[in-house]
Design brief:
The structure is a single chain. By secondary structure, the protein is of the alpha+beta class. About 15% of the residues lie in helices and about 35% in strands. The protein is built from two helices and six strands, in the order ββααββββ. The chain has helices at about 30-35, 50-55, and strands at about 5, 10-15, 60-65, 70-75, 80, 85-90. The strands form two sheets. It has a four-stranded antiparallel β-sheet with strand order 1-2-6-3, covered by helices on one side. The longest helix is centred in the middle third of the chain and has 9 residues, at about 50-55.
Length: about 90
């Protein structure tokens, strides 16, 4: 997923797994983290984004981009939702 900059702030690619790249496509290193870059991974269920984003961005956040959700049955009426987000901390 492509990351992008909005209003001078970096939107961080968020996925249910894997490394989260910066704008150059690199996983954040310690210097990035110290500058405030967040390494964010969310669970695969729909409730994952609000609860975890609130913990990572205590002053609030905006969803900058949402990828196409991948919905699949897990059996016995349970469905798993995996989606990809970019968020900006307030």
């Amino acid at each position: 997923m492509q990351t992008k900059s909005i209003s001078g702030q970096t939107a961080y690619a968020v996925s249910a797994g894997g490394a989260i790249p910066d704008l150059q496509g690199n996983a954040p290193d310690q210097a990035d983290i110290e500058r405030g870059m967040k390494r964010i991974e969310f669970g695969t269920h729909g409730t994952g984004l609000p609860s975890q984003a609130k913990n990572i961005c205590p002053n609030g956040y905006k969803v900058a981009e949402c990828g196409e959700p991948n919905v699949r049955p897990e059996g016995q009426g349970v469905w798993s939702i995996q989606a990809y987000f970019s968020i900006i901390c307030a």
